[in-house]
Amino acid sequence: FSWGRFRKIILKLFPVLNWLFSYRFREWLLRDIHAGLSVGMFQIPQGLLGVLLTRLPLPIINGFYSAFCCSMTYVIFGTSHHISIGSFSILNAMVANILKTLNFNQILSSNGSLANFSDPAFMKNYMEALTLTASTTFLTGIIQLLLGCSCLGFITTYLPKTLIDAYLTAAALHVIVSQFTFIFGIIIDFHKGPLDIFYNLFHYFLVLPKANATSILLFLVCVVMLRVSKYIKITYKHSPIAFPMELLLIITVTIISNRIHLHAESSRVVVNMIPHRFLPPTPPDLSNLNKIIFHAFSLAIVSYFLLVFVGKRYASLHNYNIASNQELIAVGLCNISSSFFKSFAVSCALSGTVIQEKTGGRTQLAAAIGASIMLVFVLKLRYFFQAMPNGVLAAIVVVNMLPFLEKFLDIPTLWRQDKYHLVIWLVTFAAVLCLGLDVGLAISMGCTFFIITVRSHRMKMVVLGQIPNMNIYRSLSVYRAAMEIEGVKIFQCCSSISFANMKHFKNYLLSKMDMKAVPLDENEMRALISVSLSDTTVQGKDFKCACVCDPPGPAPRIPYTEKLVKRHDPGSGSSSSSVNLVHWSKYGDRSSHRTLLVGAAQAQSASPGLKTGLETEKSQDEGKGACLSSGSATDNSSVLLHQEEEQKTHLLSPVHTIILDFSMVQFVDLQASDLLRQIFHMFHNIGITVLIASCHFSVIAIFEKNDFFDSCITKERFFLTLHDAVLAALEKHQRQDELELANRPTEREFTQEPFAEQQKVEYLAF
């Protein structure tokens, strides 16, 4: 325990202290007051008109008390400086859909009239709907609080900016379509389900002849004024502030509508018919949580992601960060406090957030000022604002949704820059627009994770060459100056190796080497298994008797199951040209590597003494263990996989070393490690050494954990840099050539010291 850690924990739990103690009164106070006035005045008509969208007339005062408590809660616990917390029309519609699913009929009919609240049965149904709404909001907050305490907010880290932009664009379109009720002054039966936005547009088109012309005219006039105000700039402390046209419109139109009857739809008719103005706060009913738990979970996810998406958008614009887990806790506490007032689940109010940001708000003090102004005006001047036409509010909402729609302009840029992100944008937008905020979010996240997985595991390999007289290696297909080193093939792997791309890794390697892999036949597999068991205690015994109570021994480890053949060879099975002698050797041995090469033509023309020589060579190495993956250290030896039916030719290749550049490889999973081990052995058996360069220590640790190393594949094959691996490969090959030249007898030695015919044949075979 220390005071520094205690202070850090307190600042993390209460983010308000971070900006409160460093508040710049001279620079920020007037800006926050300006933003708070605009947001507070906007929230008043927005709260009065929520009844028309949800068709469930909540008590008016309860809704404003809930908005005030939620705003103050987020001021204390939220980390975003520009979020305006409040009800979101699409979330409210989701709650209303939940009530409809549970057989609660809507209270407000499609003709705009309320039901008869004097009926006791209907009143009981109404109170049950309010109780269920409170329970849904409470359970939503509990789920968000538990997710935040479990630190599950990190999921948003894996969501790209394109997904956020597309999601908010589709959500903005949903909000705009929901405002058609206020624009046209008509009420329709909202369709819920897939493609609901298109069904609602079709229904609006059908009832368009019944629209209120005055509402449409007011809407158009207000839109023009709001768009013109965009070009009026106010500068305070060298920072631009938007002209407060929303505040001016609300006050001006409200005063005019109270003096002159504008023949436009307003909230006065609906508000006056609500039976209760205020219901005292009560704890939510917890008896019906099992009915709504899945609905509440969906609501909690959508509410949280909408909040975080908008918060990240404005945090990136103003160069600060938000804490995802703390946002979960903050919105969860907001929903819990809202449930006591029998109100809907809350999230980020898109229009209010845009207004707060563009009018100069710098901290959450603007949200606190706005919430206080809203509550005071509602309690004292509520009837004054009920006369404001609905079209004015719709104009403010629609115009403030336009910044989100501007993201359509990013589509050509994404097409040129990154088509993967373009696919994410289009899938997210289409899913959210057609299937809703909840199902669309799930589909977009699934698509994003799939694309990220495919892109991160997509194998990309290049062949490298050396820049002459330099220790720099570049792609042969890109750099003309790069030249391939004779006898050395350098491959650079540009991604991690996993089960998803290991086959492509193998195929690319073999194709560049002009080879293909052919499965071993039964005799060759049996020979490998016998070699793997050669170091056991029963070596050489044909019969063994053991008690069944004894634990079974480990299964023999087969180093490889395929052999390499030339790609242009006509055959591919046992009749194809392949390796006649399988050769293993401990890497790093100073002794020369010997491989017996026997061609098909040589086998036909050789004398019987040749076979005797081969058998002699085999008998000399008999009893010596081969180089297997079990790690037994053995001398250089050769194991003959000989079939009596036919003779095979050896696969000759001008390449003596393959170097794999692993500088870009971050991990190699278990299956890829097994495949890489087989590749090492397959190339080693045809006389090609495989080296690895620039391998990160974490990848080497993975190899050790996966039992990758054995007596053949040692850490001597790993080099710190690519140039070190090239120098080692060239030096080793040159040393072998010199050793062969030194051991080769001259023609004079043949004449002075005559050899027996059989010894000459043995030498030629070697």
TrEMBL record:
Its main location: membrane. Residues 478-729 form the STAS domain. Residues 614-624 have a biased composition (Basic and acidic residues). One of its GO terms (cellular component) is membrane. This is Testis anion transporter 1. InterPro entries: SLC26A/SulP_dom (IPR011547), SLC26A/SulP_fam (IPR001902), STAS_dom (IPR002645), STAS_dom_sf (IPR036513). It comes from the Eukaryota. Residues 607-631 are annotated as: Disordered. It is a multi-pass membrane protein. It is found in: Membrane. One of its GO terms (biological process) is transmembrane transport. It holds the Pfam family Sulfate_transp. Keywords: Membrane, Transmembrane, Transmembrane helix. The chain crosses the membrane at residues 60-77, 129-155, 167-191, 211-229, 241-260, 292-310, 383-402, 422-452, 683-703.
